[in-house]
Amino acid sequence: MSSDRVAPWLVESRWPTVPIRLVARLGSGHTPSRSKPEYWENCTKPWITLADVWQIRSGQTTVITATKEKISPLGLANSSATLRPAGTVILSRTASVGFSAIMGHEMATSQDFVTWTCGPRLDSRYLLHTLRGMAPDLKRVATGSTHKTIYMPDIEQLRVPLPPVEEQRRIADFLDAETARIDQLVGRRNAQEVGLAERAYASVSEILLPGILSNPSGHWPWAWLPRAMDDRPLVRLGYVCRLQNGLTVDGKRDLSGDVLTRPYLRVANVQAGSVALDTVTEITVPRDIAARSTLRPGDVLMTEGGDLDKLGRGTVWQGELPECLHQNHVFALRPELDRLDGNYLALMTSTLHGRCYFESTGTKTTNLASTNSSKILSFPIPLPNVAAQRELAKQAQNALNAIEATSRLLKHQSAVLVERRQALITAAVTGQFDVSTASGRNVTDGVPAS
């Protein structure tokens, strides 16, 4: 693999490019044998592994000073792991490819990283920015069926533009300041998106349940609900809705008779407020089983388990796939159409009331939670007439649509900022402009500051 194939933009450099290994000592890491308990006693040396990638994934952390795991002197002595000095630049090359940082003090790494300890002709911060400029290219050329990897012969071919060291430092100073400014703007956009999500939650809750945020009744057992309104009696969901269970996958099932092959909806396909259809599989089952687990347009889908904050979230099935079946861990709620609107029910599950009910009644483990058909059918739902339900659902959906439009704009602005950050790095390290006169220029033209 040639360097030109990895990062074609390097040919634009106004300085000569050289293999990084010629101006920095190239190294890698290792994992001491896990079968030797004595190698994992008295671990005192910081050891960078893939468990630490979260620290550098955003590209906003320059120096890494703490690691999740440590390595022992005995483990070091009996493996290929080597302590590298502070200032060494690291690059993840396996699974999570292309993330980089600088060691804050003496550390070792696992074999999932390569390291460069810079010589006198190469500044570590300048190398870091160059590697971050290459990150999208490194991800693109990584190979492997199970875990994407950049192999060492390819690492050895990576090149870096080589201006004088003082110029490298000026470029690094410029990029430190300018990328920090862009990162700050991206952070503001992310915070605004979080605020919009909270606004969506609050808007739907107040539209469907006026007073739930400002004036909860405090009455047991649903203390978070506002006082009941005369035209919205609180009704157990099972009185106005039927629950259909799905089918189980059974490799021993007899398929010698009258069978059908149909699309099959699993838990992974049911998202909060949407259905992911890009990974739907098919299943072959007897006709009578298919008849008992076929979805109908207007069904409200709920999953039996998942993340606690998503438990009980309803999604309306619009009949996107004809004759689609569903897994037994996906419940299909079928409203009585003259008494309950499916969109109203789905939106109600996303309100403060829905979240409080399912989170308080769910069975919780460390990271996940689950519910069951009995708890779902016991969900107390305010029930105005169907016409009023449809009007309320329309108002809530209009509010969500407006918020989603704003969210899309924020996501677009964030994407533009990320693109400009990348373009700025590649232009600076290849000398496309003079950073000594460029400081303070507006690299975020067209993107509001707040």
From TrEMBL:
Residues 14-180 form the Type I restriction modification DNA specificity domain. Its EC number is 3.1.21.-. Residues 386-413 form a coiled coil. Belongs to the type-I restriction system S methylase family. The lineage of its organism: Bacteria, Bacillati, Actinomycetota, Actinomycetes, Kitasatosporales. One of its GO terms (molecular function) is endonuclease activity. It comes from Streptomyces brevispora. It comes from the Bacteria. Keywords: Coiled coil, DNA-binding, Endonuclease, Hydrolase, Nuclease, Restriction system. This is Restriction endonuclease subunit S. One of its GO terms (biological process) is DNA restriction-modification system. Pfam families: Methylase_S.
